[in-house]
Amino acid sequence: MIPLATLYYLLCYAWQRLPEPAVLQAVKATPFHRPLELLTQMLLHAARPLLRAGLPLGYVATEQEESELRGRIMLAPTIGRGLLPRGRAACEVDELTPNQPLARLLAGTLAALASLPALPLALRREVSQLHRRVPATVPAPAPTAEALATLRRQRLPAAQAFVLHVCQLLFDTALPAPAAEGRRRFADFRRDEALMARIFEQAVRNFYRREQRQYRIFTETITWQATAAQPADLALLPTMLTDTTLESPARKIILDTKYYAAALRPRYDQPRLIAPHLYQLYAYLQNQRPSPGQALEGILLYPAATATVDARYTLGGHPVRIATLDLAQPWPGIAASLLALVSVS
């Protein structure tokens, strides 16, 4: 099981935010056992500066009965209610207010956490205290998938985007599932391989973006080096999208992360590499066209859950490495291993 301190680093890199010493201190000082407590601490530390500075304001259209004309006159309600003889009119007025989607999501998430029995009492009290600092004009509806999807489509500033990420993960893994009679989801999402695979991939990619300057980091769609009798048939080929591509004038590395319980699988009583993963990486390499003088390489990276692997091959003329990363070690060791993985050997 990944230590919570390591999970915190992975989440921070995945969501492009530097780890905060205060959160790490809280993780070490408090006997946390589940990611729920860690995510709650992350939300508290991310939301406090937002509330201190003041939640972002935006205009919201509200209908008001006015004795003086303001905003836009709403004829149907004005006539229907017989307001004109009384010298009044229904007006639609744009008001500047903190009652915005992110503020409602934050308030709703804090309200849900404050009443969550799975959360320790002391932490629930902290959540309640922070919730009381949310402006009274901001309601606290229960978070919904629709509200989260709407916010994900917006280009939020970094600090607000981080709050959204934490609220999203809390909604997905810890808060009561809708229409499920209070059933909880993955309270410890470290066992959810699909979710952790996304976090691991994003964390590794963003780690290289932030912590080294030798390579340009990106994901790319590789075009099949294929022809077809019918050009339309080419559209049937599956998309080849790399997890992470690292490129310098001298090297191009295609790095695929795989979050699996083991990098090897038994076959005929012998451990073997996972064939589809190797075939996928081989296809990427065979359909790449590196720049002149640029060496092309491939790496498959797994967490070292059951065994350490570091195998090197030459496949189709390209160096290929299958390696594991020990996520149980302290973060400085993980960072050093990641940098060593792409250093010039």
From TrEMBL:
Record the organism: Hymenobacter polaris
Q: Which GO terms describe its biological process?
A: DNA restriction-modification system
Q: Which InterPro entries match?
A: McrC, McrC_bac
Lineage, top ranks: Bacteria, Pseudomonadati, Bacteroidota, Cytophagia, Cytophagales
Which segment of the chain is annotated as a signal peptide?
A: none
- Identify this protein by name: Restriction endonuclease
